[in-house]
Design goal:
By secondary structure, the protein is α/β, with parallel strands linked by helices. The protein is built from 11 helices and 11 strands. Helix 4 links the parallel strand 4 and strand 5.
Length: 347
Amino acid sequence: MSPERSVREPIVGGPTAITAIVGTSARRSARQPRAVHSSAEFDAQFGPEPSPLGDAARQFFAAGGTHAIAVATKPGDVAAGLTALETAEPFGLLCLADPADSAIRQQASTLARERHALFIAEPDAAWNRAPVSLEDFNAGMALENSALYFPRAAGGGAVSAAVAGTIARLDTARGIAKAPAGRHARLHGVDALAARIDDREGERVNALGMNVLRDLTGVGPVIWGARTLANDGDWKYVSIRRLAIYLEQSLDRGLQWVVFEPNDEPLWTLVRSDVETFLFARWQEGTLLGSGPDEAFFVKCDRTTMTQADIDGGRLVVTVGFASLKPAEFVILRMAFAAVPPARSRR
């Protein structure tokens, strides 16, 4: 009997604004991811008592977030909470409610890379001004899937949750391709910052790869930077990395049907068609730049993307180029999927 075939459906965009928050809770520590959509819903599930997780969730919703995946842990058990997210529903942002050491940051950033998300790291509580170097802080992290914002919120609390809520709000208002920074990136729910950063200090913070949080007169605390910790290459900017993550996640979910298909020309034609249709819609809505589709994206899935060994081994490879900063200047994604070796290689 032949295996059950996956259903081929149009590729749809994956979630970008869903935020996973891991932290200690006053009442519940089941380490089970739970979806919550408001502070009231969080209080009903986890209790209204103050706690790192509760404070972070409330900051997230106050900043404009609408969908969180909360994972409550016992003190010192954040690693288990992150492990619980390995099989949770898809999410686009990840933050921690409790102070994290190097090992936890490494685990969180690695999880973000594997789950197609961005880890928003929390600045060290001991930093009154920006550090001279982030070398020790960054050690072992998946830097291209991590971003760091400075300074902390006045009075403590996870500023990363407020940043995540602001990014989630801006995703809805402006789209994922726009940099989540500027006067419109107000950190609602944050009354003040732990340090006031002037222009000179802000330049130094940005040069380190951190994103400045500024307290603007007449506006309040805002996000004033949009870099990842990678700080160079294609993944230097949060907006480009998040757009790539969005495309990766969408294609990864939308092409699962290929698993039971022979890895041959008819399959490659279908894959190219599906991916091109999805990217064309993203160009039409303005997510990808260019006066025409040829300036906005390209898709390859043929003998130029796969070796004969790939084909015979059932390894389908798709190469996608997309324009996010300038038309016809492409950022390249290369994705591999399992398929069935063609009949001639199974004889």
